[in-house]
Amino acid sequence: MKKVLFSLALVVTASAAFAQTEKGKWTVGASSNSIFSTTKTADADDDTRRTSFNITPDAGYFFMDNLALGLRANVETSKRKGDDEGNFSFIVAPFARYYFLKPTTKKVNVFADAHYGFGSNKVGDADGRGVNEFQIQAGPAIWLNERVALDATVSYNSVGGEDIDNRTNTIGLNFGFRLSLGGKK
After folding, report:
1. Whole-structure pTM value
2. Are strands 168-181 and 108-123 parallel, antiparallel or unpaired?
């Protein structure tokens, strides 16, 4: 039994000794802001509440230690209080993510992340409209082991586009997970 416990302790300790954000590794993840968000449209005459759910999967590559560049998709459905028609949007965006703490073997690391993308927004049965979006976010990544992390971020998101009079600005609390794959042996 002592050998099993010692082996387990060795594996857990060794897993923390690998760099999760080192050059040459891939990262994949997903997040959602459905836990909490407040939305207000600039210059809107009414204060309409909107319920929404989104999922944001992404994949990136660490071109240098602590800096990943990649591609992200943002899929969102929403409905305004009192409206019969829903809203669906799909946006694709390049992103950059930087981890601040070194060495990268920390169990908790702090990061900042930004993206700018383009896509389509469809309301009810109407044709989709072109949209653009930018987002900045920051928060801790809590590494459960060398490959898996949980993210919690505070974010600012702004969406606008053609035939849209006002940009929609959202401040939110996002939660997600991250996988670190491959890299140097």
Report:
1. 0.76
2. unpaired
